[in-house]
Design brief:
two-stranded antiparallel ribbon; mainly alpha
Length: 85
């Protein structure tokens, strides 16, 4: 596993916790053009396609961003690579 997988997974978990907290906090808001307040809700359950595509997109972007430094490090001589450690 690389940092992209870990970061994307932790991000989805934190988003789920925040959505749960907002949905169960009892917060209210008044939409424009209405006189009465309604409960504030964040949709998380039922949006699995969007959540998965965002998670997958983050992993792809992290992988692509790691290709250039990895290729540069792979082409270095071992002695030069050990100097940077």
């Amino acid at each position: 596993m690389d940092l992209g997988h870990i970061g994307a997974s932790i991000g989805v978990a934190i988003a789920a916790l925040l959505a749960y907290a907002v949905n169960h906090s009892g917060m209210m808001w008044t939409p424009p053009g209405q006189a009465s307040a309604i409960p504030l809700t964040v949709r998380f359950v039922g949006a699995w396609g969007m959540i998965f595509s965002a998670w997958f997109g983050l992993i792809v972007m992290a992988t692509l961003a790691a290709l250039v430094p990895a290729n540069r490090a792979a082409r270095m001589p071992v002695v030069d690579a050990l100097r940077h450690v």
